[in-house]
Amino acid sequence: MNAEQDGGAPNRELYAVLQVSPESTTEEIRRAYRHWAQVYHPDKYQDVQMKETATENFQRICQAYEVLSDETKRQIYDIYGPEGLSAGLELATRTNKVEELKEELERLRQKKEEEKMAAQFIPSGIVVTSLSLPQVLDGDGIMSGMAMSSQVNTTLSKHTNLAMGGNLEVNNHGAGTAASTVLRHQLSSAQSIEFLAQVGLQSVIGVQTTRYVSSHSTATIGIRKSLQDGSINLSNTWTHQLSSTANGNIQFVLGDQSSVAVGWRKKDDKMSAGGELKVGTRYLGASAHYVHHFSSKSHARIAGKYNSTTLEVEVGGGRKISDLTTVRMMYVIGIQGISWRFETRRGSQKLVIPLFRSSLCNRSICSSNISLLPV
């Protein structure tokens, strides 16, 4: 095992930790490890500073022995150094052929490069098709509308990201489109700034900045101007980490859409809950939900929502029947009527089927939605 024959000097750092030569046998490396492990074992020292130094040296000795005591890892280290080990070659098929190790390293390097490129350009999108059973019973077509949206996120530099998206919605009442662009730049580890431009149903431009004011709080200040009527809205949002599993926020908006909103969220292994109250010049609404997880596969949910056009409560539960599929049955009571809903999710696809409806139930509740998220 002579790396010099392969065109480069052998890597010696780990050998120096154990104070052995690269030509040492496995038994010589084992004896050196036992010796230095006894010398630097942390339990032998009472002084705090000496104990910390001994602990650091002991960890280095163990790490060096872990590599040099394994024949394949040692060979990879001798040829490629720490880079080969960090690339995951220690998990490769065990072989003594240097040519195969080189091929594996090149393959892993190429894979990492592809992953890096993919992380800089991330497309996403969703297509929603609405199928209405009441419409069929009334003698109309089964499809009541369709909506499509897509977004592309790309990394321009280490601190700058760009997101571009578009939406298209078609229903019985007409069609609408919108396109948006968001440029986000990280000014520092504690502050970022975003520039927004949107055209379509709501054409606006805006800018907002977010800053960590403490280890548990963030503040966001923004301004938006409508390109349609020239109105301006100022916003200020404060978010505070209430505990390791809960956070709260309050938002103030000043302008033609002035409002105050207060929200709260909590999530742990057993439950998740949240709520929001929003009061504005053109809006009054509140919503809340609670989900309890009986196990990793089953849960119960209760939720409520109120605004100027909606008042409803839903109760139900769901179960995960496979790694990708979850089913849920919900009972919904609202001013529009009463209905049972059967929901199934498989991966990023969702199907909602109404099983019963009262005579007061309108078409927006008694409809099936199929959501397809392309990979």
What are its keywords?
single chain, 375 residues, alpha+beta, Helix Hairpins, 18-stranded antiparallel beta barrel, 7 helices, 18 strands, 22% helix, 48% strand, elongated, disordered N terminus, disordered C terminus, coiled coil, AtJ13, DnaJ_domain, DNAJC11-like_beta-barrel, J domain-containing protein
User: What share of the residues does DSSP label as strand, in percent?
Assistant: over 45%
Q: Could you state the CATH homologous superfamily of the domain at 3-116?
A: DnaJ domain
Number of strands: 18
Q: How many alpha or pi helices?
A: 7
Q: Span from first to last CA?
A: 46 Å
> What is the CATH topology classification name of the domain at 3-116?
Helix Hairpins
**Mean model confidence by pLDDT:** 79
List the helices and strands and how they pair.
Layout: H1 13-18, H2 26-39, H3 48-68, H4 71-80, H5 82-86, H6 98-119, E1 121-132, H7 133-137, E2 143-155, E3 160-171, E4 174-186, E5 191-200, E6 204-212, E7 217-226, E8 232-241, E9 246-254, E10 259-267, E11 271-280, E12 284-293, E13 298-306, E14 311-320, E15 325-334, E16 337-346, E17 349-357, E18 367-372
Antiparallel strand pairs: 1-2, 1-18, 2-3, 3-4, 4-5, 5-6, 6-7, 7-8, 8-9, 9-10, 10-11, 11-12, 12-13, 13-14, 14-15, 15-16, 16-17, 17-18
InterPro entries: AtJ13 (IPR042162), DnaJ_domain (IPR001623), DnaJ_domain_CS (IPR018253), DNAJC11-like_beta-barrel (IPR055225), J_dom_sf (IPR036869)
Coiled coil: 91-122
Keywords: Coiled coil
